[in-house]
Amino acid sequence: MPIRNSAKAIIVHGDRLLAIKKKDRDGYYYILPGGGQEHGENLHETLKRECIEEINAEVEVGNLLFIREYIGKNHEHFEFDSEVHQIEYMFLCKLKEDCREIGNGIVPDEGQIGVECLPLSELLSYRLYPQAMRTHIIDCMTAKNLPVYLGDIN
Fold first, then answer.
1. Cα–Cα distance measured from residue 80 to residue 100, given in angstroms and rounded to the nearest whole number
2. Whose C-alpha in 15, 32, 114, 123 is 20 to 30 A from the C-alpha of 141?
3. Locate the Nudix hydrolase domain: which residues (predicted)?
4. Residues of the domain holding 124
5. Across residues 117-139, what is the average pLDDT?
6. What's the average model confidence in pLDDT over 3-26?
7. Residue 53 CB: number of other CB atoms within 10 A?
């Protein structure tokens, strides 16, 4: 199976992080908006398309904050992710001023039940994937100097 590129949006509005809400056998969990790069798209185009599809919003793509690899066989979901190898490029994004109502877009992510804004001060108490990103996002918003490449984390 080939390595897949993915672009993710870190959208902080005030003191809240915008996230996609999903549910599994363990309860609610959250992921960042974004998804797989299609042939012929650059990562900014991917992210803009994915945000319209998933959260019904146009975004302005800012700086690249983090690069994360996900090698499924190395993590807790290995029984169904063992063949997955994905590289995620996470960009700081802003909602465009004229964006529509935020919510499920025209092509929501599989299993997506909604969109929520999670308080940054409580981010560690949410099941946000990749879970290792919670502290990186908090640190980034407090202007700490962080590495861009985070390695194989979940």
1. 36
2. 114
3. 2-142
4. 4-152
5. 94
6. 94
7. 17
Give the pTM: 0.89
CATH assignment of the domain containing 115: 3.90.79.10
- The domain tally of the chain equals 1
> Residue 49: in which H helix or E strand, if any?
helix 43-55
Other C-beta atoms lying within 10 Å of the C-beta of residue 31 = 20
pLDDT for 82 equals 78
Locate tokens 């969109």: which residue? 115
10 Å Cβ neighbour count for 71?
Answer: 18
Q: Determine the residue type at 110.
A: E
**CB neighbour burial string for 118-137, b if at least 16 within 10 angstroms, e if fewer:** bebeebeebebbbeebbebb
The predicted model gives 106-129 an average pLDDT of: 93
